[in-house]
């Protein structure tokens, strides 16, 4: 739940580093990230790994797979905190053992909950 453009309001340089690192380490295609941003279904293992990677790198998911809302909100400007908090509170109930699957469901739920404010890096 983050962004390569300025839609998150976060540090664009840091976001690009996270994006590039996770894209490379998971073998995810840029096209899959772009399609997901546009609301299209992207359901492959590489993309699920990417979701987990960006969430962990950004501090929104702990190594145990819990959503860490306070840590994640610290990285956002005040104008983004309310919508991001609502999305994560609404979508942090998943308990899948597979953390890739859990991260994917959190991202998908966030996008469906508030498509206008959803962002991913």
UniProtKB/TrEMBL annotation:
<dbReference type="GO" id="GO:0007608">
    <property type="term" value="P:sensory perception of smell"/>
</dbReference>
<comment type="function">
    <text>May be a carrier protein for lipids.</text>
</comment>
<comment type="similarity">
    <text>Belongs to the PBP/GOBP family.</text>
</comment>
<dbReference type="GO" id="GO:0005549">
    <property type="term" value="F:odorant binding"/>
</dbReference>
<dbReference type="GO" id="GO:0005576">
    <property type="term" value="C:extracellular region"/>
</dbReference>
<dbReference type="Pfam" id="PF01395">
    <property type="entry name" value="PBP_GOBP"/>
</dbReference>
<dbReference type="InterPro" id="IPR006170">
    <property type="entry name" value="PBP/GOBP"/>
</dbReference>
<protein>
    <submittedName>
        <fullName>OBP6</fullName>
    </submittedName>
</protein>
<keyword id="KW-0325">Glycoprotein</keyword>
<keyword id="KW-0964">Secreted</keyword>
<dbReference type="InterPro" id="IPR036728">
    <property type="entry name" value="PBP_GOBP_sf"/>
</dbReference>
